[in-house]
Amino acid sequence: MSPKTAELLSAPKSTALFEEEQGYIAPGIQSIALLSKLSIEKGRGARLTDADGNTYLDFNVGVSVCSLGYSHPKYLAALKDQIDKVTVGSFTSPARLALVKLIAALAPGNLRRTQLFSSGAEAVEAALRLARSYTKKTDLIGFTGGFHGKTGGVLPLSDVDWKTQVGPLPTGMHSTPYPYAYRYNGTPEACLEDALGRLKDTIQTQAKGKLAAIIAEPIQGTAGNIVPPAGFMTRLKEIAHENGALLISDEMITGFGRTGKMFGCSHDAVEPDIMTIGKGMGSGFPVSGVVSTDAITRAKPWSLPSAASSSYGGNPLASAASLATLQTIVEDGLVENSARVGAVLLSELKRRLEKYPFVGEVRGRGLLIGFELVKNRASKEPLPKPVCETFFAECLKRGLILMGYAPRVRIHPPLTLTEAEALEGVAIIDEALGAIAPAAGG
After folding, report:
1. Which residues are 370's β-sheet partners?
2. pLDDT of 39-95, one tens digit each?
3. I need a labelling partner for 226 at 20 to 30 A (CA). Which of 4, 87, 89, 431 fits?
4. 316-331 and 94-106 are packed helices; what angle lies between their axes, rounded to 10 degrees?
């Protein structure tokens, strides 16, 4: 722990700036911003500095967005260089050409064609249109707990509790249970078979011969970094193809090294028909994409001029940011670092958190890790949210930022995280859990 964070932090300037902004900004910003009331002035590596001069170790990085950490020199140099040249436009640029060539080299198998966008939901909507264009069918199946964005075209496939309150939703989109082994009364293998059986039932009873695609996260992020049983993505592709449909792997969170492999689907060695990419591929710059095969991307109407375009997608500045990010991930061995440091982080969490009876499963791959806060390990009943929010506050005032204000705690630090930083974060989590133990029943 650094000298600045050795004592419990207070942030009156941050809070004052936050409160002033609340008089103007519309409601609906992220929970982590509302609860922390932080005003951030700068970042370097895995650390942020607030308006009061407090430093924080960031185990969130914009929900897995800032993969290189803050102010990475290679990233800054690429952006500054591109700003001096040209920043917008849909014409070919050296940065975009180099970027799509690099994505083609990194993507699994025959996925060699990329279309670029700005947000995750925009890319997912484009992927759904592509699947429908290619298969000439209409229905789509996602999973309970899944999250693919909040725009109207993907909202039915995202597990958010308010979606039915915003009017009629697009039809032809169905959900089926994700294989969440910790919450299943049986073995992981039985959990997987049960989930796949339910998927097949949904295909037969709801899609009824109209299935265009199955979309899945290789690890469910928003639901709590839930790791499915081995073979999940492989089986999904088999089932999709048996029904004349495609498999879309939503790699927004899991892509480009986050899980200790280049892509989340790589853990099952499966080549999806379509991948959606984003978040960490721009290390903070808004950029996303759809990656697929030559044959699939030529399907009409998706492939018609302007039919898959985006005003900001693939602009020179976004392309430069993403290119610098992916080049650095490859050149600096950050996929391997994610696997190595992630293993240390996961192992230490399991070791140090075992003494707390209110900590349930600790899980993860690479630097995508989660654990559950429960009333007890037998019932697995989630801890009340106010207790979880207290845990978040205890972490924050000890100098650690993480998504720990709900019963499913999510950890996704930068891919540049060192072992020393990982151990520092675990020590703070341990202290914070100790602080809430009386309220948590431990």
Report:
1. 363, 410
2. 999 999 999 999 999 999 999 999 999 999 999 999 999 999 999 999 999 999 999
3. 431
4. 40
SS3 content of the chain, % helix, strand, coil (to 5): 40, 15, 40
Q: C-alpha angle 54/57/59, rounded to 5°?
A: 140
Within 10 A of 441 (CB to CB), how many other CB atoms are there?
14
For residue 62, with 0-12 CB atoms within 10 Å meaning exposed, 13-18 middle and 19 or more buried, which class applies?
middle
Domains of the chain plus CATH, in order, are 3-71+334-441 (3.90.1150.10), 73-332 (3.40.640.10)
Q: What is the pLDDT of residue 161?
A: 87
252 Cβ contact partners less than 8 Å away, ≥ 6 residues apart: 120, 123, 124, 217, 221, 276, 277, 278, 279, 288
394's tokens = 């205890």
Angle between helices 385-396 and 419-440 (to 10 degrees): 140
**For residue 301, is the peptide bond before it cis, meaning its omega torsion is within 30 degrees of 0?**
yes
Q: What are phi and psi of 17, to 5 degrees?
A: -65, -40
